[in-house]
Specification:
Length: about 270
């Protein structure tokens, strides 16, 4: 191989930000989820004091990740880590509403343990809520690494910049896409294959609301595509499967896709 290529690769390594491996960042989030929800692990504490030790360790590890990321040289990483840890009780309360929504909404769910240990929706929401909190603390890069890790494991793609209320219910989840500027209210149910996306993707639209708003108590069934930053789904509405929607609908609407399915005897069918 030409030596100039070696030199080119060497220079790229010298110029690239030194960021901890994605697996290390995800492992920290999994430790946090396991600490908050013992159903997710088989670890238990011998004494109450050990719980505080674990939270202290998580704060130290987060600070280490922030310092190692070097994506923001002016950030007060100690303040970010401390503020994040102090916000965990509220984070836990919000995640608990998500667990309650999935347990109450899915007739196949037998108990919270089953939801927490087995539901991809729980993992995707947990990673999203951790990432969203870090993003609000102006943490660079790590929030996106966290949600993309969850995306790779669950097939559920939630941008950390999306704003999502309490009691989010995700059933099955595979193929769900929630864009950066989407706003979702409380008690919203999402099924698999849903896209809350932008009408167009142009670089100059960064910072502009490009994704829809979904108000409280809306149900969106599988395969629905809802696009546009000005599109608002009014509260208490139902969006049927495979609907393609680029305009707002008022409160208490039912929107469904008309399709034609024909059933015929095989011997008489022309197919």
């Amino acid at each position: 191989m030409d030596n100039s290529f070696y030199q080119y690769i060497f220079n790229k390594h010298q110029q690239t930000e030194n960021v901890p491996p994605n697996s290390d960042i995800a492992h920290w989030a999994i430790k946090l989820i396991s600490l908050l929800f013992p159903q997710y692990t088989n670890f238990s504490f011998a004494q109450e004091a050990d719980v505080k030790v674990s939270f202290d360790e998580l704060e130290t590890e987060l600070l280490s990740l922030l310092n190692a990321t070097q994506a923001c040289k002016e950030c007060n990483n100690e303040e970010i880590a401390q503020t994040f840890i102090n916000s965990i009780p509220k984070l836990y309360q919000t995640l608990q509403t998500d667990v309650s929504a999935m347990l109450a909404g899915d007739p196949a769910a037998n108990n919270e343990f089953e939801v927490i240990r087995t539901y991809p929706g729980f993992i995707a929401i947990s990673f999203y809520r951790i990432a969203n909190l870090l993003l609000k603390l102006k943490t660079p890069l790590i929030p996106r690494i966290l949600t993309e890790y969850a995306h790779s494991k669950t097939g559920i793609d939630i941008h950390p910049g999306a704003e999502i209320g309490d009691y989010l219910y995700i059933d099955h989840g595979t193929g769900i896409v929630i864009g950066e500027t989407a706003i979702i209210g409380n008690h919203v149910k999402l099924y698999q294959g849903i896209t809350l996306g932008a009408l167009s993707v142009e670089k100059h639209m960064a910072g502009i609301k490009r994704h829809p708003t979904v108000e409280d108590h809306v149900v969106i069934y599988s395969g629905a595509t809802i696009l546009g930053g000005e599109t608002v789904i009014g509260k208490n509405s139902i969006i049927g499967g495979n609907v393609w929607l680029t305009k707002s609908v008022p409160e208490n609407s039912i929107v469904y896709h008309l399709s034609s399915v024909q059933v015929a005897e095989k011997s008489k069918s022309k197919f």
